[in-house]
Amino acid sequence: MQLRKLLAASAAVVALPTLAMAQPITGLYVGAGAMYNFKQIEHTKASPGAGIGSGKLRPDADGFGGVGSVGYGLGNGLRFEVEGSYRQDSIRSFGTSAPRTGQSTQQDYGVMANALYDIDLAPYGVSFMTPYVGVGAGYQWSHLNGFASKNLTTGNVAHIGGTDGNFAYQGIVGAAFPISAVPGLALTAEYRFMGILGDQTFEAQTYSNAGTGRRGNFKTTENLNHSLLLGVRYAFNTPQPAPAPVPVSAAPAVAPARTYLVFFDWDRADLTDRARQIIGEAAQNSTRVQTTRIEVQGNADKSGTPAYNQRLSLRRAQTVAAELVRDGVPSGSIDIQAFGDTRPLVQTAAGVREPQNRRVAIILR
């Protein structure tokens, strides 16, 4: 039932209409989430004095837990974080060579350090989410909560409990869905695989029908967990959305202009109606003045990486050139150039969105 609810919630997250464009995290962020946990069967072994024998702990498929994290993003997709986690699973039986039954809970909790990498899909047309992968290592404690296991053949009852810890590891696959109404806020959906290394040792006492008792050690191995997680994440220094740019038209002149500027929305390479009007004017005037070639120069602001800005400025220049050809300009007379963020109209620091720098210049030579 919990798994069905979690999957339904995941589908609702993907369908939210308020998702914004994904951006790489730069600086401090925090996150938290709730999880459904499925624990694999654990193999057990007991000391000879415990009077139990080896067997298996069989968990129910109704585990749950939570995670809280603090991290730092480098702005290039790489992130590092520290998390605290808690998982609880019901143990419904303990199987050995002799039939046994019992009921209890097992808790796993600890601290992990994770390294994650966000995969930028914006160049491929996917900007509403950012998938990511990660690995982690740390320390986890396992607590067996007074498990009472009865031998259905002899009637002997074994009481098993205690806490033990060991080093742990995990793998993470997830996706973040930014929310446009709150810059920096994102919903997250993850799958995690977490394993605790080595054995966890607990105390065992076995009592017979006559009331006599035996004491020894009880160990579990292969503590492996599969978790589905839904959460939220907030990055503190996410830039605020830039205001809608105001297209700047060429000043009226007696002679046709030789330079035309076409502006673009942030992280976009498609044309607005105003942009098509300006391109149409440039195409028409190219036949009225003496023109040997037409330069189409693409530019971007500094809100992305230099490599991404170079690709974006080229896409913008190619879009404008294609519109000129549709307006009757011969393709052989068009010279396409891309300058990335190296020729700003307005000087800004790295990471700043500037509408005047998101442009293509059409120059009639």
Notes on the structure:
There is one protein chain. The protein is 13% helix and 50% strand. The protein is mostly beta strands. It has two domains: 2-235, Porin (Beta Barrel), CATH 2.40.160; 259-364, OmpA-like domain (60s Ribosomal Protein L30, Chain: A, 2-Layer Sandwich). The strands form two sheets. Strands 1, 2, 3, 4, 5, 6, 7, 8, 9, 10, 11 and 12 form a twelve-stranded antiparallel sheet that branches. Helix 2 (273-285) packs across helix 3 (306-326). Mean pLDDT is 83; it is low at 5-18.
Q: What kind of assembly state do the chains in view correspond to?
A: single chain
Terminal-residue CA separation? 69 Å
Number of domains: 2
Q: Which topology of the largest domain does CATH recognise? A: Porin
List the helices and strands in order.
HEEEEEEEEEEEEEHEHEE
- CATH top level assignment of the largest domain: Mainly Beta
Largest sheet: 12 strands, antiparallel
Q: Please compute the radius of gyration using only Cα atoms.
A: 31 Å
Shape: rod-shaped
Low-confidence stretches: 5-18
CATH architecture of the largest domain: Beta Barrel
Number of helices: 3
Q: What fraction strand?
A: over 45%
- Which structural class best describes the helix and strand composition? mainly beta
Proportion of helical residues? 10-25%
Q: How many strands in all?
A: 16
